[in-house]
Amino acid sequence: MSTMDKPLISAQALRALLRRGHRLVVLDASFDLGDPAAGERLYREAHVPGARYVHLDRDLVGAKSGANGRHPLPTREAFAVTAGRLGITPETPVVVYDRQQGAYAARAWWMLRWLGHDEVAVLDGGWSAWQAAGGQSDSAVPTVDLAPPYPQASPLVAAIDAAGMAAQLGRVRLVDARAPERFRGEIEPLDKEPGHIPGATNRFFQDNLAADGRFKPADQLRAELEPLAPEPAGQVVHYCGSGVTACHNVLAMAIAGLGIGMLYPGSWSEWSADSARPIAKG
């Protein structure tokens, strides 16, 4: 039986599970694109007691070719080894949080679902919600009981590659999670070309959040996201700059009860790296 309401868990519910001694793995996925060491540094200063740290570049990203985006997925086999190193088995409930409004926690959530792991939730509001709820903090790095590589299982989420994207242009609904000015092509601080994939609609991932940093209620998210999510949900493809914050929109749709849709992991950083691919602006 599930110990968590998925895909979100409140700070109060997580505190209750930990107080009752439930065996679960808590992952701190805090990260800063501008300072890749910052997340781990903050983790070592204070984290949810017993939490293990997952580093975006080391743990949630595969080999970069220069043409496959800034944060390409590792192979499922490689990530299965990472999950085992974190002590995650098919029977392990997992809670993921970060200090960046869920952007990196959502990526870890999606990747565990990609492995076929169902029992995973994101801490609603992240570290700030944990502190506001009176949650304890610790600076000790826990000793982890290593597990074997996560066994092969059917993915619970779907991904599409660049060739699939090119073939499906005009046939699927595209949702871009970047800030509006990047979507419109007015600025591009990170990737080769400004703009967006033709036909995409913009849904800035931070629009999924209320003023307190937690996700908006499911009914509100559904009202806002339903126009972007025609039936069936699998016809919606989510992307962003590099396949990270797009996972936030995937999570928001799951919270809203609108299904999961597909992730384009290479996202704009991969798409724009090839001058033969069409781009749009405005």
Helix and strand arrangement:
Blueprint lengths: L7 E2 L1 H9 L5 E4 L9 H8 L6 E2 L2 H4 L16 H10 L8 E4 L5 H13 L4 E4 L2 H7 L25 E2 L2 H7 L4 E4 L3 H5 L15 E3 L15 H8 L10 E4 L6 H10 L6 E2 L3 H5 L11
Parallel strand pairs: 1-5, 2-3, 2-4, 4-5, 6-10, 7-8, 7-9, 9-10
Helix pairs in contact: 4-5, 5-10
Give an account of the 3D structure.
The longest helix has 13 residues. Helix 10 links the parallel strand 9 and strand 10. Helix 4 crosses helix 5 and helix 5 packs across helix 10. The protein has 282 residues and is an alpha/beta fold. It is globular and about 55 Å long. The protein has a five-stranded parallel β-sheet with strand order 1-5-4-2-3. Strands 6-10-9-7-8 form a five-stranded parallel β-sheet, covered by helices on one side. The N and C termini lie far apart (48 Å). It contains eleven helices and ten strands. Helices cover 30% and strands 11% of the residues.
**Structural class, judged by helices and strands?**
alpha/beta
Query: How many DSSP-defined strands?
Result: 10
Low-confidence stretches: none
Shape from CA axes?
globular
Query: What percent of the residues sit in helical stretches (DSSP H or I)?
Result: 25-40%
Fraction in beta strands: 5-15%
Order of helices and strands: EHEHEHHEHEHEHEHEHEHEH
Radius of gyration: 18 Å
Span between termini? 48 Å
Number of helices: 11
Descriptors for this entry?
single chain, 282 residues, alpha/beta, five-stranded parallel beta sheet, 11 helices
Describe what is shown at a glance:
The chain is of the alpha/beta class and 282 residues long.
